[in-house]
User: Fold Aminopeptidase P family protein from Stakelama saccharophila.
Amino acid sequence: MSTHSDRLKALREQLRADRLDGFVVPLTDEHMSEYVGAYAQRLAWLTGFEGSAGNAVVLPEAAAIFTDGRYTLQVREQVSGDDYEYVAVPATSMSDWLRDHAPEGGRIGYDPWLHTRSWVREATKALAERGAELVPVASNPIDAIWSDRPAPSPARMEVYPEKAAGRSSADKRAEIADWLAGRKADAVVLSALDSIAWTFNVRGGDVEHTPVTLSYSVIHSDGTADLFIDPAKMTDAVRQHLGNAVRIHDRTAFGEALRGFSGKRVAVDPGFGVAAIFDALEQGGAKVLPVRDPAVLAKAIKNEAEIAGHRQAQLRDGAAIVRFLHWIEREAPKGGVDELTAAAKLLDFRKETGLLKDTSFDTISATGGHGASPHYRVDETSNAKLEKGQLFLIDSGGQYEDGTTDITRTVPVGEPSAEMRDRFTRVLKGHIAIDRARFPEGTTGGQLDSFARQPLWEAGLDFAHGTGHGVGAYLGVHEGPQRIAKPNYPGGGPAEPLVAGMICSNEPGYYKAGEYGIRIENLVLVVPHEVTGAEAQVLGFETLTYAPIERNLIEPMLMNAEELRWLDAYHQRVLDRIGPLLDDEDRAWLEKKCATIG
Assistant:
């Protein structure tokens, strides 16, 4: 099965053997993770799609792949239109498509460990209108044909220092026990990997870019816990760290353990708890409470130690970024730099800090038309040289023990066009509007999102992704529940008020298909602001990311006096904070890049 068409054919043969008339293939794992281990990359193996969000449905005579606006270009480059219909979500959901295309009376399979209960109910209802049924499978049919499927990572769990975490695991579990008491619940299931890592002050290496360990946990109302994990991942140091209040079990025992809560009230997050968890608890006689995982919001509101660590990580990372930007400006016009070379060079600069653990996601190193795909991922096939007249977009981040970074900069190779400067300046104006926003407590990111778009809207332009996402503390680079985005954009859901201590990205952009992409991204911290006469607590943002914004792409005439003052003040802070971390040559370059514009 050397081609994806061969794999699609093999899956259809397997479905016939399993007496199924279709199968749903999500891009996730048993924990509803955004980034998943190689063993769970079923969608990529089957279709070739390498984005971070998508699904596919395979029927006997038809197949479709579902992606949102971030991947409109990428899915067409990576997935054959001869094999799959391209379907845009949320305009058309998988359930809608199934209702219209499933064979009447058909049996459509799904893996209950890879879907939420809400999706199962939605799809069941849609298929019923077709006279078809949704059928849970005991084993995933893709696994039956994926002969060289990688094994799960053997990486061991590691202790995360309390000095970096800012709180002990016992304290966090006690807080969760209080949360359970308030809901008259006996236990809560934690299945989101970053929630487990945060709650127990542990980290791991099972998922690329995210330092987590494949595991499940049940926390009880007395503050004790059961942790389900491959025993080979445990060390004496982790056992000692967890203490006697945390009982260790083999990960394979988790499903059966859920059936032992007869008569108990057990909380499960409907967003991260897969259908199989709900099913096992209910089959065992438990009363399931579908409520948000108590670690989600607590994890999002960073404490003083996490904030201090993040600031240090940002300075270290910012110096690496400045060294890279200087290098790219010097070398790209010579014609010898391509996308892979650039990504590798930036990784080298980060590694030279001596503290890099991993990148926080696959670096988006995109020149020319590749930049118009917001989540472009370069490989040997797509790799392109940076050429004069193009824009080069680099979106990247690092994982350090004291913080997770995420930054995007866009630079010209040679002289940019007037249109490029216009579009870049409009994106910058939106970026500044978010950074300068002041808002009362209770405001959601969705209420701020239009601030970033207004300068583009004025020219009849927009961008098809959210303006900002939450960021973890040496955890996921994409962390909820907060976000800055239109409610109907990818990842949308119940609006979450912004709270002091949350970290968000600020990343408006503009993308011209086939020609170029522009994005400017910093991370910001939600902080209180003193406003004379305010009748409620006022919040705003503190910028955490420090690297110059490309002055050769700015059209000052499009900016007002306040925006220019913001830009000059920001660049002065970049110079003050990053300059001392550089050698003489890089510092001299930074001084020119940070010179006053207004």
